[in-house]
Please model this.
Amino acid sequence: MNVAVLDVMLCAGLVWCAVSALVKRDLFASIVMFISFGLLSALAWIRLAAPDIALAEAAIGAGATGALLLDAAGVLARGDGSAAEDAERRTPRSANVLGTIAAGALFAALAWALLSTPLDAPRLAAAALTGAREVGIANPVTAVLLDFRGYDTLLEVAVLLLAVMGVMALRSGAPVSVASHAADPLVRLLVGSLAPAVLLAAAYLVWAGTSSPGGAFQSGALLGAGVIVLGLEGMLQPMRVHPGASRLLLAAGLLAFVAAALEPVAAGRALLQYAPYARKGVILAVEGILALSIATTVAGLFLASSVTPDRGKAGRP
Amino acid sequence: MSAPLLYALVGAGLVSLGAWGLVVRTHPVRKTVAANLMGSGAFLILVSAARATPAERPDPVPHALVLTGIVVTMATTAVALALAKRRAAASEGHSGEGASDG
Amino acid sequence: MAEPGAFAPQLLGLAIVVPLAAGAVSFALGRARAMAAALLGAAAAVALAAAVAWSVATGGAVALDIGSWVPPLGIRLAADGLSALFLVLAAIVGAAVSVDAALASRPGADVADRWLFWPLWLFLWSAVNGLFLTADVFNAYVCLELIGFSAVALVASKGSKAALDAALSYLFASVLGAMTYLVGVGLVYLASGTLALDALDSAVHGSASARIGLGLMLAGLVLKTALFPAHFWLPTAHSSAPPQVSAALSGVVVKSSYLLAVRLLVAATGAGSGPGLRLTLAALGAVAIVWGSAMALASQRLKLMIAYSTVAQVGYLFVMLPLLEERAATVGLAIALHALSHGMAKAAMFLAAGDIADAAGTDRFDALAGVGRERPVAALSLGLAGVTMLGLPPSGSFAAKWLVVQSSLASGQWWIAAVVVGGGLLAALYVFRALASLLAKPDRSEARTPKPRTAWAALPLAAVSATLLLAGPAISRLMAATSLAGR
Model:
């Protein structure tokens, strides 16, 4: 794969967006540059033959992360601005200089490392591709994620639940931040009719994930993004679920994955060693659960941190 | 120079930029952006190497690691921003030591 | 497969997954039953740690290939004596923290409104167990992030402006550390095609790229472990968190990233981590001992003093590293003894400090006169923990310092002995200063309103730490199943 003009432009764009996102004075301009960065990097993933990552980046990197950043910037920019100024207090000049020198040194070290290693070493590719064929999972990335390194993914689901718990713990006692927008009836109609399509697309991605790119992460993120849109338009208020039920929903993904991990132990096999005859079924089930879990978490992270009002008791006197 | 190497070097640049931002920039939203950039740089290095691998398709192991990393980075973003918002609310003076709604 | 040892590998997986599941259940159950579920999970975690330690002591090191996928494709969990001892440290501190939090969560008390403490705490416990056991460098990254998020959320749970400020700076330091580590993992994979800790030595050999990767991984871990000068986030985070959280952070969490750093150094002994690297880390450790002790002595608040003391104690863990290659068995034992005794003593000090601050309404030294009489259990716990801080017999840190001084003199590195002994003297100063202010005659006679909380959990912790030498034979036996010599 030789360098094409497109690659050079893409790389220049990535660096430009990244620098702007860090140095622009206006917070919103920064975030817009960061979201553009996310979209450009989705293109870069496609150029690097990683369509699965491109989907995840578009949905999570640019989509959900962008929404979270915009929401936070909105909250932090409100009020008399004292908090924002306080947060923007200057770092000492010496720290600036040291930090810049350290970052430069880091770049030099990384560049040297990359230039002194052959990028095209074989590594684990052959083992993973052969392994995926042996277990009969057509998409090798899925095989790595949910079988060979399924334990990483189990912990990753734990990270997601942990993030929701962290956000909930932080929200408690804090004043309600953003009220939901009163939705335009036309927007409601549009969103309402889009929702089933998003749902279908997400379900398809899970199914397709076992054989081709797409899968739990992408579909979950897509679903979650759909819920965020619904939430932003204020359409989730009437269908807000009981807190206990929503907690159960949030924890269900991790608990189901734990059950899939422990069942083999009870049967005398190793942790996460699925029964050979049930492997495909279990992986498909875990993927579906994962998609739901990611969707509820992505949505939960966003809704818990911004839209849902806190019904808790008032603070202590 | 091959295209994967170009992308990998851009990844190295993003890592350094992100680290710079995490150290030097002060606003929590910008620090969060910096953390995301640093992560993207690391992912770019991994995926470039996966692309350069001589196999019938890219090395799936880095792809899986990167997918995990993307989700973890989003969790970082959510926690960091929730914390920044809570802190801003506390310094505005009406912070409560109250209860969650369970 | 009916032999008794056959289940031993499974214990490793369970020691991580069971507390994780208990945390998720505790979260799902919500405020009313979160504590009950979490306490059950905590009991199970303690039992599992004991079972792992028992099986390592009787049958030697244990390993589990998760999903039966052999590394480098799969992920391996491995427990030798050192990991087993760190699991036990987490279990002992974890039990005390859980009991203390349960006692404190009576209606009207500190933690009652913060039921999310319970699931967050079990996630933290599960993640440190995960980091103690993993033999895969990327999996360790995920564990590091889990530890970071749960620790930050727990620090922030206090809700005060100081705690939120501290949590924010902790979070960004933690993220910078984890990302730096991750970039290092990426380079190592690029250069070597493996993520397995065992394979690191041959990987790093002769590859500049892998050595840079190893350096970045270590740099990230140094930041996470708060080794001077990367300690800047620790004093505020550890001193402004709720007492149970401070205890867990100082007692266990800093040790988790430390253990991984030692594993990396050992795994790469043959190549990248030459004497220069160890010497650099040891020099930073020496500065940390002096700086941390001086700042502890200068601080006006009890909890801040204890937090700075942790900065110093982290220094001890690093200052012994240059001796590790030559005298792996002795120094390994010293690492285990120091980590264990300091972890328990520090956790006891934070729990006791929480009790004292509860009684006095503040933890400023100038307001603590006479509190020692009101809270004798807490004062006694602080005193017993002081035995460990000073390194007096029969504490574990006495034995650790003895072993380090001996090894350093024998190998001609007398400066290590000097730092270790000098650090003990500095510790004496700040510990006596704290006790003196607690036992001073109160300058006002008004009785404070007695509150029901007592540091019952701190006392046994401090006592075990101060008499750890009695468990010496068991610890030696576990460490016999450990090789830190590298290949």
User: Anything to note?
Assistant: The helical segments of chain B are 3-24, 28-52, 60-91. Residues 10 and 41 of chain B are 7 Å apart (CA to CA). Chain B touches chain A through 89 residues (CB under 8 Å).
